[in-house]
Amino acid sequence: MQEPNTSPVNDGRAPGSVGLFRLFGVPVRFHFTFWLLVIWLIFMGSEGTQSIAGTALYVIGLFASVLLHEAGHALAARHFGIQTTEIVMMPLGGLAKLARQPKPSEEFWVALAGPMVNFVLGAGLLGWTYSQGGTVELSHWRASTDANLPGRLAVTNLVLAFFNLLPAFPMDGGRVMRSLLAAKRPIEDATRLTARIGTVVAAAMGLYGLLNSNFIFIFFAFIVYVGATQEVMATSAQALMRGATVLDAMITDFRTLQHGHSIRDAADLLLATSQQDFPVLSGEETVGLLNRTALLKAMASEGPDSYVAGAMDRAFARLSPEMQLSEAALMMGESGNCALVFKREKLVGLLTGENLSEFLVLRKIRQSRGSAQGPDSGIERNV
């Protein structure tokens, strides 16, 4: 799978993941739960007719296939000038995080590249199996052995390819379907139609799972339904932000702290205002950002007399008032839900997740009421 990256801040690293190596220049990280699944699969497989070494090779081959699938996305995205900030391996598969949303014509090839890698791997392993006099039979899955390992990996790759091509989010087939529909209609309409198709797929999978007491199908039906809902919400938000800038949504009435203030001073300000994030200044220069979570941690661990300079985030996100709001939203993914807005190095505002959501709600209401004026018409600012 692949998705636009929402976290270029903090090196784009997904929470709970560990970076180990680079593949084609892309950081590959493993979520800690991934290793738990690997150990569990090897343990369960060792109780069958296959050796522990053979089981380990199958598990390694399985996840290597998933990793190469994500590398296919990354290489296709690179062809269109889209950076892949990281590949994260998780228990349910891999995730290639792209720096931006591909255009419909780009999304078709980027999404299709992953399953194509699995098709090539599956066909290659299948050809090698038959060239060695082997066969691929259903009984191999009931009696796994070291001898039928290549054939099982071949079938696994073909299954991964076909499953990922289901026309439903968050699978690659959903993105392929959207890109084809977007060739003749707006991206929002294409996303909603693809989501409806995905909902039908989810319903069919869920019904089959219920009738056959197969909880795996029920689980994947839930994943497909949630994926469709999230994709529609994300696309709708992007549509609402179209044409808006940071200046339209940012907070201009805010309080600041000095780096010599104590955590007690920050806590008093937290209680006295509705503000959750506080820029920290040294004279006129902005040197950090203290959010509510960091404040509470410092209060508990260092005490109220410690300084905010020891708890603030020095690597905060920086935006300009003229930046497109959609671009700014991507930069806020993992930046503590707040970014500071500067004009010629002067702090002029804050952009938080809360006021961004409020801006989108107001714009949606005005659009639904058919107002001739946009939501930013009443909040013009001179910065």
From TrEMBL:
Binds 1 zinc ion per subunit. The active site is at 70. PANTHER family: MEMBRANE-ASSOCIATED ZINC METALLOPROTEASE M50B (PTHR39188), STAGE IV SPORULATION PROTEIN FB (PTHR39188:SF3). This is Zinc metalloprotease. It comes from the Bacteria. One of its GO terms (biological process) is proteolysis. Its cofactor is Zn(2+). InterPro entries: CBS_dom, CBS_dom_sf, Peptidase_M50, UCP006404_Pept_M50_CBS. One of its GO terms (cellular component) is plasma membrane. Zn(2+) binds at residues 69, 73, 172. GO terms for molecular function: metal ion binding; metallopeptidase activity. Belongs to the peptidase M50B family.
